[in-house]
Design a protein that fits this description.
- The protein is mainly α.
- Among the domains are: about 1-50; about 50-105.
- Helix content is about 70%, strand content about 0%.
- It is built from six helices and no strands.
- It is elongated.
- The chain starts with a helix and ends with a helix.
- Troponin I is the inhibitory subunit of troponin, the thin filament regulatory complex which confers calcium-sensitivity to striated muscle actomyosin ATPase activity.
- Keywords: Acetylation, Actin-binding, Coiled coil, Muscle protein.
- This is Troponin I, fast skeletal muscle.
- One of its GO terms (biological process) is skeletal muscle contraction.
Length: about 180
Amino acid sequence: SSPLQKKRRAATARRQHLKSAMLQLAATEIEKEAAAKEVEKQNYLAEHCPPLSLPGSMQELQDLCKKLHAKIEAVDEERYDTEVKLQKTTKELEDLSQKLFDLRGKFKRPPLRRVRMSADAMLRALLGSKHKVCMDLRANLKQVKKEDTEKEKDLRDVGDWRKNIEEKSGMEGRKKMFEAGE
């Protein structure tokens, strides 16, 4: 194996090592982030949801239910307000990104498909009604005349073998052969 191949192998091995190290680092970061989110969730729940103590009398239970119902309504209103704010912000973001595209002069290109098109159709599509010239490419080809040789004249006099084959081929040819009794 040449020194160039060894260098390539070393570069590939190094690239693979770096890639695996990056993936491992990313995995540990994701685990840390998930653990931090869980701790944050527990803290939030401990702060906003104190442990429930059920009172003994019916009146105290009804009061507790009313308080919980009022809290649920407040949280629901807050959730709705947050959703509306998020939708509004998302719409603004989309509008701003569209304006940014417009200012840059860059537009998203649609995916192009291959289309078989003749030269005439292409010119008609590009130029519209201005297109009058017919681009028949075969019309501009030179006419080349063959010089008849003696050998070809002899062959033509004998008869063209293709003509014989065409006459005998297909159903018509078979019908003629059958009628002729061949």
